Amino acid sequence: MTIGGLREAVTRVQPYVPGKTIEEVKRTLGLKEIIKLGSNENPYGPFPESVRAMTEELKNLNRYPDVSFERIKGLLGDLQGLPSQCFALSHGAEGMLQTMGKCFIEPGDEVVLPAATYSLYLEITRLMGGVPVPVPLAEGFRADPEAILRAIGPKTKLIWLANPNNPTGTACDVRALERLIRSLPREVWLILDEAYAEFADAALLPDRRHLIEEGCNVIAIRTFSKAWGLAGARLGYAMARPEMVTVIDTVSEPFNANRVALAGAQAALVEGRPSYEKALATILADRAWLAAELARRGCCVVPSQTNFLFFETPYSASELSQALLERGVIVRSCEGWGFDRAIRVSIGTTEETRRFASLFGDVLDDFRKGVRHHG
Ligand SMILES: *Cc1c(COP(=O)(O)O)cnc(C)c1O
Q1: Which contacts of 253-258 are long-range, i.e. CB under 8 A and separated by 24 or more positions?
Q2: Is 166 in the pocket of ligand 1 (CB under 6 A)?
Q3: CA–centroid distance, residue 292 to ligand 1 (Å)
Q4: Which of 19, 108, 186, 371 would you call most buried, defined as having the most Cβ atoms within 10 angstroms of its Cβ?
Q5: Would the CB of 94 count as within 6 Å of ligand 1?
Q6: pLDDT digits (tens, 9 = 90+) for 136-157
Q7: Ligand 1 within 6 A of 118 CB?
């Protein structure tokens, strides 16, 4: 039975489909050991320093968080080289993306985004009654700032841009992106989702600090879910000029970060730095190893600026990912983004990465022999 009374836009929103969970796969396939490489989490988190601080903070959970967020904003300021008034917090980057929708999108507004990107942008746009304007990717599976600029029309209000992009793992041309940001009309804002920035070559990312200081219409979004190993704690933040931060804080829910997440993030930023650096270095080394391994097996691997690899195979991605699942490995088929033969795999622990390469090799051999290949 349909439910009456809903906003029309609500009826058009599709539920977000997260990667499969370990619990779900164990239950449905009766497997004992699962390697989860479908959600780009950090296999080395939470860092022990975060766990200690979060455990310690539990006894304060009867109290609301201190919403000045003074301590974390000071630490983020040091990290990013911006004054603490340039930061707003949220429950995960997702929470900030939702707030962006509320800040900018009115029914009928056009919202520009790359054709293959993080699916939540489309759903937030629809929820707010906006009209998505997808722009095809450029060569090399990269978002195309010049084409995005050309797609801006009189009705455009917002641009969603994940840089590096998910699912393709690529950063777009940095000069073209900076030109796009500097050319934005006064009424158009660009939401720069940098969920994977820590894994990228810094020279390939725009100078967000300068762009914000210049007063550009850009809001950069970061998260503790990926590089900082705290996906389950839900903490994200935005960087923007102070006037915009005030607007974000007004539109956000009043207590937009929880005590445990804050304690974990603060500890990661201070005592946890060596753990973080070590995890990052290991993930980058394993990413290079796996890219070479997949290429050796005949896959076309797109150079990654993230903690995952996007690669094209000779076979159907949904069939390959199903065969992997039956061996206990969770990856993302990129069919839903229109890449019928592409897979996205997160970089797990070194051991998981080696195991994945070996199991994937077996699966490819089976497909090559025609065991699973249907046309
Ligand atoms: C994972 C991801 C997010 C979500 O991050 P949370 O902080 O866990 O909400 C946002 N944007 C992109 C592009 C992502 O891949």
Answers
A1: 254/67, 255/64, 255/65, 255/67, 256/67, 256/88, 256/89, 256/90, 256/91, 256/95, 257/65, 257/69, 257/72, 257/89, 257/90, 257/91, 258/65, 258/91, 258/233, 258/234
A2: yes
A3: 27
A4: 19
A5: yes
A6: 999 999 999 999 999 999 999 9
A7: yes
Q: Is the CB of 313 under 6 A from ligand 1?
A: no
The tokens for 227 are 């590089």
Domain range for 22 is: 8-45+274-368
Q: The CATH number of the domain where 111 resides is what?
A: 3.40.640.10
| Structural domain includes residue 94 | yes
Residue among 160, 170, 193 whose CB has most ligand 1 atoms within 8 A, to mutate: 193
Whether 40 and 52 map to the same domain: the answer is no
Confirm or reject: Cβ of 276 under 6 Å from ligand 1: no
What pTM value is reported for the model?
A: 0.95
Give 192 Cα–ligand 1 centroid separation in angstroms: 12
171 within 8 A of 199, measured Cβ to Cβ? no
Chain CA centroid to CA 374, Å: 33
Residue with tokens 């804080």: 249
pLDDT on residue 18:
75
Instruction: Look at the chain and count its residues.
Output: 375
Determine if ligand 1 sits within 6 Å of the CB of residue 236. Answer: yes
Same domain, 230 and 293: no
Q: Ligand 1 pocket, 231 CB below 6 A? A: yes
Using the structure block, give the residue that is written with the tokens 């700032």: 145
325: CATH: 3.90.1150.10
pLDDT at 283 over 80: yes
Shared domain for 55 and 41, answered yes or no, is no
Structure tokens, 281: 């270095």
- Count structural domains, the chain: 2
